[in-house]
Amino acid sequence: MTEFFGSGNPKPVPANYRRDTPLEIKQGDTVIASGMWTKSGFLLVAGSLVKVVDIFSKAEAGISKLKKQMIDKELLVVKNQPDQYELQADVYVSAPNIAAGLVLGLASDALFFWHNKDGVKLGDLVKKIL
Questions:
Q1: Distance CA 90, CA 27 (A)
Q2: Which pairs from 52-58 meet CB under 8 Å and 24+ separation?
Q3: Would the CA dihedral through 124, 16, 32, 118 be positive or negative?
């Protein structure tokens, strides 16, 4: 069973948004994270890379706490690159921005950084249905 990290309920998915849309974050031409926004939360897929060092304000300190919980459960391990962890199993977090923050190591606008395989940003995918 895929574990949920975070507190509270998952951020609601817009009613007409296709929940089965695979999303990704790229660094240059390389996909560094994959995920999917579902009714159970944002699914961050095993193999996604997470920055070792993060820069969060006190308001975003919860993301660092989630990362530490994942490290403690050995879900994040340093792989190949010393500045990145690799996620060892799929996990749910409460919202796309939490997943983007984990991946990028800083507060991030999920609507900008997550996109589909065609490069369409999550924000544009959501706008199409509103």
A1: 20
A2: 52/78, 52/82, 52/83, 52/84, 52/85, 52/105, 53/83, 53/105, 54/101, 54/105, 54/106, 55/105, 55/106, 56/101, 56/106, 56/107, 57/107
A3: negative
From residue 77, alpha-carbon distances to 36, 59, 114 in Å are 22, 26, 23
- Average pLDDT (24-50) is 94
Q: Which of 60, 16, 66, 24 is nearest to 45 (CA)?
A: 24
What is the sign of the dihedral through the CA atoms of 84, 63, 42 and 121? negative
Residues 66-111: pLDDT tens digits?
A: 999 999 999 999 987 778 999 999 999 999 999 999 999 888 888 8
Against a cut of 0.85, is the pTM above it? yes
Q: Collect all residues with Cβ–Cβ distance below 8 Å to 31 and sequence separation of at least 6.
A: 24, 25
